[in-house]
Write a structure and sequence with these properties.
Elements: E1 4-8, H1 14-17, E2 24-26, E3 35-38, E4 54-57, H2 67-72, E5 76-78, H3 85-100, H4 103-112, H5 119-126, E6 139-143, H6 147-158, E7 162-166, H7 172-177, E8 183-184, H8 188-194, E9 197-200, H9 214-219, E10 225-228, H10 237-245, E11 251-254, E12 267-269, H11 278-298, E13 319-326, H12 331-341, E14 346-354, E15 357-364, H13 370-378, E16 382-387
Parallel strand pairs: 1-2, 1-3, 3-4, 4-5, 6-7, 6-9, 7-8, 9-10, 10-11, 11-12
Antiparallel strand pairs: 13-15, 13-16, 14-15
Length: 389
């Protein structure tokens, strides 16, 4: 017998879907799904059924998901931070090399001369046009030291670059994972002023949108290279193109194709392939399914972008109830009172909050929890109640 149903809005790697527990089955109907897996499908205009309890993005970015709207409905949104980090890191390193040496120009020249029987004789003279510089010993500024930024910093250090790292919100764990040689910069303007290459790895937030703007560019070296494999809106591309045309920066390498930069000089563009590796897609799928399975079967929340992290372990009691509610005083005491009035005992309980929303898991030693659930749902501050077990 199946307890839950899932659906996919995009193709999701089968190796991940195989990790669903046996009580969760697939459906092609969004309206009939308890959980949704998504990659790039746009969800902002979608209508969601009351049955939906969670959405998992097989990737890090969630710009395509209406996370606030779903939070109001009591729907948890997960992502998979770090699952595609290595794939993106490798493309960033590739971008560093493509920007420092005119590899693309050289390849295109060879292709243009394929019908020329004298091509081997032309090579020695022609190759001077595609000469570049080495990245060894150059300064790389890494803005954002999360899962991807850390790996880029580590790889660049191994390649002999002098790495500057900036992240005002870096966690202790993330700091421990950085090579000791990375210089921790407290003012991002020092990155702009000092570095030969600048790579961005921050989420798209109101505070980061357009952070590479006219003012930031004005501080950079005239031979600076900017790499953007995070989000296109982090860069004011109108100001960037103007700077490229005026020779105020050397190159822009981006994974986001659009008409603003498509025909600009000294721009290298890839078609959003940072995480397009078999390994990254598998890793994202496995992590997303693992998060959903733990949430459905145990009520635990990990890697949510709109709810707090909560872990009460595997449910081993007779009943576990998950309650989404407003983060206001005395709600927990109301829950306890209801349980006591029903002559039931709380064997385990946890509560966490995130902004205006809170999440509570309660384990009780009772086979019939329906009276509890009904009374929890009557409370004004409760958004949603789910019987996990």
């Amino acid at each position: 017998m199946f307890d839950y149903k899932y659906t996919c809005l995009n193709p999701i790697a089968q190796v991940g879907l195989d990790h669903f527990s046996s009580n969760i089955e697939k459906t092609d109907s969004v309206e009939d799904a308890d959980v949704i897996l998504v990659r790039s499908a746009k969800m902002h205009e979608m209508q969601f059924s009351d049955k939906l309890v969670a959405v998992a993005r097989a990737g890090a970015g969630v710009n395509n998901i209406p996370i606030d709207k779903l939070a109001e409905k009591g729907v948890v949104v997960f992502n998979t931070p770090g699952a595609n980090a290595n794939g993106v890191k490798e493309l960033v390193i590739c971008g560093l090399l493509l920007a420092s040496r005119d590899i693309i120009g050289g390849v295109e020249w060879v292709k243009s001369e394929l019908d020329n029987p004298e091509i081997d004789k032309l090579v020695e003279k022609q190759k001077k046009k595609y000469a570049g510089c080495e990245i060894y010993g150059k300064k790389l500024g890494v803005i954002g030291l999360g899962a991807i930024g850390q790996r880029v910093a580590d790889a660049a250090t191994a390649l002999g670059m002098e790495v500057y790292g900036y992240d005002p919100y870096i966690s202790i764990d993330a700091a421990w994972n950085l090579p000791r040689s990375v210089k921790h910069i407290k003012d991002v303007n020092d990155i702009y002023r000092e570095c030969d290459y600048i790579t961005i790895h921050v989420p798209a937030l109101p505070s980061t949108t357009g952070m590479i703007n006219e003012e930031a560019i004005s501080l950079m070296k005239t031979n600076a290279v900017i790499l953007n494999f995070a989000r296109d809106i982090l860069v004011d591309e109108t100001a960037l193109v103007k700077a490229l045309k005026e020779g105020r920066i050397r190159k822009y390498v981006t994974d986001f194709a659009n008409m603003t930069v498509a025909d600009a000089p000294n721009v290298i563009i890839t078609p959003h392939i940072g995480a397009s590796t078999v390994e990254a897609e598998d890793n994202c799928a496995v992590m997303a399914v693992s998060e959903l399975t733990d949430f459905l079967n145990n009520g635990n929340i990990k890697n949510s972008v709109n709810f707090p992290t909560v872990d009460l372990g595997e449910c081993s009691t007779a009943c576990r109830i998950a309650i989404i509610h407003k983060n206001v005083p005395s709600v927990i005491s109301k829950f306890s009172t209801i349980v006591a009035n029903e002559n039931m005992n709380i064997s385990n309980m946890t509560n966490k909050s995130r902004g205006d929303i809170a999440y509570t898991l309660i384990d009780v030693e009772a086979e019939n929890s329906n009276p509890l659930i009904a009374k929890f749902e009557e409370l004004d501050d409760v958004v949603r109640v789910r019987k996990v077990k």
